Amino acid sequence: MIELDHVSKHYGRIAAVDDLSLRVEKGEIFGFIGPNGAGKTTTIRMIGGILKPSTGRIRINGVDMQQNPTAAKRSIGFIPDRPYLYEKLSGSEFLRFIADLYQVDRRSADARAQELLAMFTLTDWAHELIESYSHGMKQRLVMAAALLHDPAIVVVDEPLVGLDPLGIKLVKGLFRKLAAGGVTMFVSTHTLPVAEDICHRIGIINRGRLIATGSPADLKQELKVVDADLEQIFLRLTRDA
Amino acid sequence: MSARNAFSRSGRGGTGTRLAVFGLLGLIFWVGILAVSLKVLGYFKSVEQLGTLLSFKLLSMLFITLLSLLVFSSILTHLAKLFLSRDLSLVHALPVTSRRIYLARWMESTFDSAWMVVVYTLPVFTAFGIVFKGGVLYYLTTLSAMASLAVVASGLSALVVMAAVVLVPASRMRNIFVLLGLVVFVLLFLFFRLLRPERLVDPEVFSTVLLYLSALKTPDLPFLPSTWAYDSLRAALTGAPGEALFNTALCWSFAMFIVFTSVAVADWIYFRGMSKAQAGARRTFRPRSAAVRRSRLLSQPVSAFLVKELKSFFRDQTQWSQLFLLGALVLIYVFNFKALPLDKAPINTLYLQNLLSFLNMGLAAFVLIAVTGRFGFPAVSSENEAFWLVQAAPISIRQFLWIKFCIYVFPLLLLTEILIVVTNVFLNVTPFMMVLSTVSVLLMVPGVIGIGVGLGAAYPNFRAENPAQVVTSFGGLMFMVLSALFVGLFILLEAGPVYTLFMADLNRRPLVFLEWLWVGASFFLAGALCLVAMIVPMCRGARSLADTHS
Question: What is the pTM of this model?
Answer without folding.
Answer: 0.73
